[in-house]
Design a protein that fits this description.
- The complex is a heterodimer of chains A (232) and B (265).
- Chain A is 35% helix and 26% strand.
- Chain A has 7 helices and 9 strands.
- Chain A has a 5-stranded parallel sheet with strand order 6-7-8-3-9, with helices on both faces. A 4-stranded antiparallel sheet of chain A has the order 2-1-4-5, with helices on one face.
- In chain A, helix 6 links the parallel strand 7 and strand 8.
- The chains are: A alpha/beta (232), B alpha/beta (265).
């Protein structure tokens, strides 16, 4: 089976020029693969570099060296060296990122925030909104809120809107950064279901989850990030 | 849309090649090169005096470079060096295929004529002559930029700052340009008015598949609107890349300083 994500010997260091140029090693030698339909959970204590690895896979953080291979439309693109345009293409068609926090766009209605990834990929607004409505309903966002921008919602509501937006896409790779962090039990269960559905559709996922129970329910494999600890 | 015409979109719309500009002994801009593709939004950020406005003027053919050149792919598909265009050709380009949104709307609008005429004027410049159609199109555009059509016969000097800026945008977009230059478009506006304008710009740019080169000192504007950013300092481009990459993982000392100077929301 060909991996969807193939990270090889990736390394990341921050150089803090405003603090006298100190070097902050984050991770090195990061190597793992993720196959279609598989959910790999990154584990390790806070500060071990789990989020940094996720951001490197998304092309949000640059790598000092190594390779972030992503299978995109049948060919493998190395996001560590790709041009900005290529990275954007990969994000549009292949790789999605569900963070804990919604970066709210002012004035855009919740239903449209959720529907947008489908519209960008060519679905009609009406169909996209119908799909968005289904997901919002599953995630227990009351219909009376759908027409409002999510900026004023509670933290948990915003997170669920963000999850809906992340899971609505039909992208073959999903990165999940603590998707269940501030959710109640009922909504955590919905997220577990959504992850299971994505697996059946062959989506490759990398997740960070602190909740042991959830980790147990979604992980096919655990990658221990402490083994990538960079020498300080 | 990008999918429909991959061949066309695989060629740059504008190419800047080693652009430099000196004023006497001052090097305002040194050796800037990049390519801009259709539908791509590029933000040029930096402090005042970094050379970003000089660069924008060269890119838009308003200032001749001391060295280097700017090429543009015309609507007929032929890429041409801007300096080889005649004055009439250049003016035509400016009225049709390009837009320029100034920080001060008074520079981009005619303040004493009606809003409808401000928008209609660009259509007349490209040969429209049917009054009813011009007025209908102008009304459409006022609606798109969220200006009450009842204000169509009022002159922009009676408009608020935010409305003027939205009118300037309508005037620029009515001819369906492929490339729009923007110089601090949210510069002099209140924060709440800025947010509304940014939101409007963001959706129009995506809907119309516009290529944009936007000069701003506001990194939040760059983050919201642009795909790619170029950081300028002392006339040079010191860092460039995907917008979220440069802002979340800045490499150069100066970019780190800029990013760390943003007040938390």
């Amino acid at each position: 089976m060909t991996a969807m994500i193939d990270v090889a010997d990736a390394k990341k260091t921050f150089t803090m020029h405003l603090q006298g140029g100190i070097e902050l090693p984050v991770v090195c030698g990061v190597t793992f693969q993720v196959n279609p339909g598989e959910c790999v959970v990154l584990s390790g204590p806070s500060g071990a570099g789990k989020s940094s690895i996720l951001k490197m896979i998304f092309g949000n953080y640059r790598c000092d060296s190594g390779r972030i291979g992503i299978r995109h439309r049948g060919t493998v693109i190395d996001l560590a060296t790709a041009e900005p345009r290529e990275v954007l293409n990969v994000r549009r068609a292949t790789i999605g990122y569900v963070s804990q926090f919604l970066r709210a766009v002012p004035r855009v209605a919740t239903i449209d925030v959720v529907a947008e990834p489908l519209i960008v990929n060519g679905m009609s607004r009406a169909d996209a909104q119908a799909r968005a409505g289904e997901l919002l309903r599953r995630l227990n966002i009351p219909e009376r809120l759908w027409r409002l921008p999510p900026a004023t919602f509670s933290g948990g509501e915003q997170q669920r809107v963000n999850i809906a937006r992340g899971f609505i896409s039909e992208l073959p790779v999903l990165l999940l950064d603590e998707p269940t962090a501030s959710l109640d039990a009922a909504n955590r269960a919905v997220v577990v279901e959504l992850v299971a559905e994505k697996k059946r559709q062959g989506v490759a996922m990398v997740a960070i989850v602190h909740d042991d129970e959830i980790r147990h329910l979604i992980a096919d494999r655990i990658v221990d990030v402490t083994s990538f600890a960079a020498a300080a | 849309m990008a999918e429909q015409n991959p061949v066309e979109n695989d060629e740059p719309l504008l190419i800047a090649n080693s652009l430099s500009k000196s004023f006497g002994r001052i090097h305002a801009c040194r050796d800037v090169s990049f390519e801009l593709y259709p539908g791509e939004v590029l933000a040029i950020v930096g402090e005042s005096g970094s050379g970003k406005s000089t660069l924008l003027q060269m890119l838009s053919g308003q200032l001749a470079p001391s060295a280097g050149r700017v090429s543009y792919r015309m609507r007929d598909g032929v890429t041409r060096d801007l300096t080889t265009l005649g004055e009439a050709e250049r003016r035509f380009l400016f009225r049709t295929d390009w837009g320029f949104v100034h920080q001060d709307p008074a520079q981009g609008l005619r303040m004493a004529v009606s809003a409808g005429a401000n928008v209609g004027e660009r259509l007349m410049a490209v040969g429209w002559n049917h009054y009813g159609r011009i007025r209908d199109t102008a009304s459409d555009w006022l609606t798109r930029v969220e200006i009450d059509v009842a204000r169509i016969d009022d002159a922009p000097r009676t408009y608020s700052g935010g409305m003027r800026q939205r009118l300037q945008i309508a005037r620029n977009l009515v001819t369906e340009p492929r490339l729009v230059f923007m110089d601090e478009p949210t510069g002099g506006l209140d924060v709440s008015v800025q947010a509304r304008l940014l939101d409007l710009l963001r959706s129009l740019v995506a809907e119309l598949h516009l290529a944009v080169i936007i000069v701003t000192h506001d990194l939040a504007v760059a983050r919201l609107l642009s795909h790619r950013v170029m950081v300028m300092k002392g006339g040079r481009v010191i860092e460039t890349g995907l917008t979220d990459q440069v802002l979340d993982d800045p490499r150069e000392p100066y970019t780190q300083l800029l990013v760390s100077s943003i007040l938390p929301p």
